[in-house]
Design a protein that fits this description.
120 residues; 77% helix; rod-shaped; 2 helices; mainly alpha; 0% strand
Length: 120
Amino acid sequence: MTGQENTSGIFAALMQPWIAQLRLLTGGLAGVTGLSEPALPQPLRSLPGLPLPSAVSAAQLDCFARGVAAQRSSVAALRAQLAVVDKQLAALEQMTGPLTEWTRAWAAVERLMMNPGRQG
């Protein structure tokens, strides 16, 4: 037997109780809805180590919902950080405007002082 066949056999053996529980549940639900004669023969209990299928689905959906909420929270935090950076850039832009004008004027004065005979 190869390793893959061995793994498949182990997986199948682990899934058999869960599949049997699903069959019992669907058969019982069919009886309750009138699709079939048998009703639920016994209370459905989770087999040791295996949760009910609905609990697994609920847990997966809850995990997905928490993941979406966490992503939205991250986006909100990024928006707040970007707003702060935008304000800082606006302040920097306002400060560099006068400095740029002063630098241009100083460059014009230097040109005049270095070349007194030529203007422009």
